[in-house]
Design goal:
Number of strands of chain B: 7
CATH class of chain B: Alpha Beta
Structural class of chain B: alpha/beta
Number of helices of chain B: 6
Number of domains of chain A: 2
Oligomer: heterodimer
Strand order of the largest sheet of chain B: 2-3-4-5-7
Radius of gyration of chain A: 19 Å
Largest sheet of chain A: 5 strands, mixed
Helix content of chain A: 25-40%
CATH topology of chain B: fumarase
Distance between the termini of chain B: 46 Å
Number of strands of chain A: 11
Order of helices and strands of chain B: EHEHEHEHEHEEH
Order of helices and strands of chain A: EHHHEEHEEHEHEHHEEEE
Helix content of chain B: 10-25%
Largest interface: A-B, 58 and 50 residues
Number of domains of chain B: 1
Distance between the termini of chain A: 14 Å
C-alpha cells in the first residue's frame, strides 16, 4: 500500500490546469500543420497558419492558447493500493482546479446554478471521472473543455439494425449542424454502445486519444477512417469558412449494449484540443 | 475580397462598401459584450429604457477575456460563438449597433437585420486568443461588472483582424465558401440504406 497526501493531488491538478491551457499538445499542433499542407481553401490555409502561430506564441509566453479555458474535466485513475490521506480526495481535486485557474490567470467560466447563473469565480466545480484501477499510482488528466464545441455535442439511440451506416449518418448530421460554431478543425469523439450515461462518457474519453492513433479493432478503425474522410467532404473547413479540413481526427470508443439498443454519442472538441496528464 | 484598414466607429459609407470576404483591420473603439450582458440589454430595450452604455454606431465584440497577468492590458481573448447572440442581434442592430464580431455561422434573422439596418456581422478567428489580445491597447469595464468575464468592456484596438461574414447587402460568406469545398475531389460512393423512415 502507498500513502499519497491530498496536498500532492491538489498541487498536481493545479499545475495540469494551466499547463494544459498554455501548451497545446504536439499531436494537435502537428494536426494543424498537416491540415495546412493539404487545405484547398486560401481562407482555410490562412486560418491554420494563424492557429500554429497562436500556439507557438502562447507556449513561448506561457499564456492560454484560447481564452475559453473551459470547464475543467478531470479524469482520475486511482490505484487500488493507494491510501489517500490528509483530507477529502474529491475536495483536493476541486482545490487543485481552484488554485490552477487562479494562479494560471485562466478564465473563470463556471456558473454555480445552471438557471440562476451566478459565476463561482474560481472555475469550480470541475467534472470528475474517477476510476479505481490496479496498482499503487494515481494517474490524473485534465481536459479544459471549451463551451462552444461542447454545446454542439449530441446523443441518440439508433435502432440496432441501423449499424455502422446509422452511426455515420448521425455523426455527419451532428457535424453539419455544428458547422463553424464548434470552432473547427475539430476532433470528433464518438461513443457507441453502453447505456444512456455510458455512451456520452465513451465519447468524452475518446477525445483524450492522441491524434493519429486508431482504435485497435479493425472494423472500428475502418469506421474512424471513413468518418474522417466524409466529415472532411462536408466543405465546412477551418472555422466553418469553407475548406477540406473540418476534422483532424475521429476517435471512437465502444462498449457492449442491450439487444434493443444502439446508442451513439458525439462529443465535439474544438481546435483548442488541450489535455495534460501526470502520474503520481 | 478586398483588404481595408478602417477606423471605428464605422461610417454608413464604410459599411455599404464592405462585401463578404473582405479583410478588415479595425483600429479604434469597440465594445465587448456576450450572452449575459445581451440578455440584460435587450430586456432594457424592450422596456424602452436606455442602455448602461451608449452603443449607437458602435461595434460589439462577442467575447470574454482571461484575466490579465501582471503587466498585461488584457488577458487572451477571441470571439465566442456568434450564433448564441442571434436572438438578441436584430434588436441591437435596430437600436443602432453597426457591427458585431463573433465566430461561426448565424441565422437568417441576422442576415435580414444587417440588410435592413445597414450593418455588418464580422468574423474573427475563434481561439486566436494570444494573438488577438496583442491588438488590444486599452481595456476598461464600463457596465455589469458583476458579470465577471461577461461584463461590458470598452476596448481600444489597433489593426484588429476581421473578415466580413455577413454584409449589408444580404450576402453570407459561410454559405458561399462551404459550397465551394463540399465534396471537393470526392469520388462517387454507393448510397447507404436510408433508415430515416423506419
Amino acid at each position: 500500500m502507498r500513502v499519497v497526501h491530498v496536498k500532492e493531488l491538489t498541487e498536481t491538478v493545479a499545475k495540469l490546469c494551466w499547463e494544459a491551457c498554455y501548451y497545446l499538445p504536439d499531436d494537435v499542433l502537428n494536426g494543424f500543420k498537416k491540415a495546412e499542407r493539404t487545405e484547398a481553401s486560401p481562407i482555410g490555409r490562412s486560418i491554420l497558419q494563424q492557429l500554429v502561430e497562436n500556439a507557438e506564441e502562447a507556449k513561448a509566453n506561457h499564456m492560454p492558447y484560447c481564452h475559453d479555458t473551459g470547464m475543467a474535466v478531470v479524469f482520475v485513475e486511482l490505484g487500488q493500493d493507494v491510501h489517500v490521506t490528509g483530507g477529502d480526495l474529491m475536495d483536493s481535486i476541486q482545490e487543485g482546479v481552484r488554485t490552477g485557474y487562479r494562479e494560471g490567470y485562466l478564465r473563470k467560466s463556471v456558473v454555480g446554478d445552471p438557471l440562476l447563473r451566478i459565476n463561482t469565480n474560481d472555475n469550480t466545480p470541475a467534472v470528475v471521472h474517477m476510476d479505481i484501477v490496479p496498482g499503487d499510482s494515481v494517474k490524473i488528466t485534465v481536459l479544459p473543455k471549451g463551451g462552444g464545441s461542447e454545446n454542439m455535442s449530441a446523443m441518440k439511440f439508433l435502432l440496432p439494425g441501423e449499424g455502422a451506416d446509422g452511426v455515420k449518418n448521425f455523426v455527419l448530421q451532428t457535424i453539419k449542424e455544428a458547422g463553424g460554431k464548434a470552432c473547427p478543425p475539430i476532433v470528433v469523439g464518438v461513443g457507441i454502445g453502453g447505456s444512456f450515461d455510458k455512451v456520452t462518457s465513451l465519447a468524452k474519453h475518446a477525445v483524450l486519444r492522441e491524434i493519429g492513433v486508431h482504435h485497435p479493432d479493425p472494423h472500428i478503425a475502418e469506421l474512424e477512417k471513413e468518418l474522417l474522410e466524409e466529415i472532411n467532404h462536408t466543405g465546412i473547413g477551418p472555422q466553418g469558412l469553407g475548406g477540406t479540413n473540418t476534422a483532424m481526427w475521429v476517435p471512437i470508443e465502444t462498449f457492449a449494449c442491450h439487444i434493443t439498443a444502439l446508442p451513439v454519442a458525439v462529443n465535439i472538441q474544438c481546435h483548442a484540443a488541450r489535455k495534460k496528464t501526470a502520474v503520481i | 475580397m478586398a483588404e481595408y484598414r478602417l477606423k471605428t466607429p464605422l461610417s454608413d459609407e464604410d459599411i455599404l462598401n464592405l462585401k463578404v470576404g473582405d479583410s478588415v483591420l479595425l483600429t479604434g473603439r469597440i465594445y465587448m459584450a456576450r450572452d449575459a450582458a445581451h440578455k440584460r440589454m435587450v430586456e432594457l430595450l424592450e422596456k424602452k429604457e436606455s442602455l448602461p452604455v451608449d452603443l449607437k454606431s458602435e461595434i460589439i465584440f462577442y467575447a470574454g477575456p482571461c484575466p490579465p497577468k501582471p503587466g498585461q492590458i488584457i488577458g487572451p481573448v477571441a470571439p465566442t460563438t456568434a450564433f448564441r447572440m442571434d436572438p438578441y442581434a436584430p434588436a441591437m442592430y435596430k437600436y443602432g449597433v453597426k457591427g458585431t464580431i463573433g465566430k461561426g455561422p448565424r441565422r437568417q434573422m441576422v442576415k435580414d437585420a444587417c440588410k435592413e439596418y445597414n450593418a455588418i456581422s464580422f468574423a474573427a478567428i475563434g481561439g486566436l486568443s494570444t494573438i488577438l489580445s496583442r491588438k488590444v491597447k486599452s481595456e476598461e469595464v464600463v457596465a455589469y461588472e458583476d458579470l465577471g468575464p461577461e461584463a461590458i468592456r470598452k476596448l481600444e484596438v489597433e489593426d484588429f483582424p476581421v473578415l466580413v461574414a455577413y454584409d449589408a447587402h444580404g450576402q453570407d460568406l459561410y454559405e458561399q465558401e462551404i459550397a465551394k469545398y463540399e465534396n471537393y475531389n470526392k469520388q462517387s460512393k454507393e448510397g447507404a440504406v436510408n433508415y430515416e423512415n423506419v
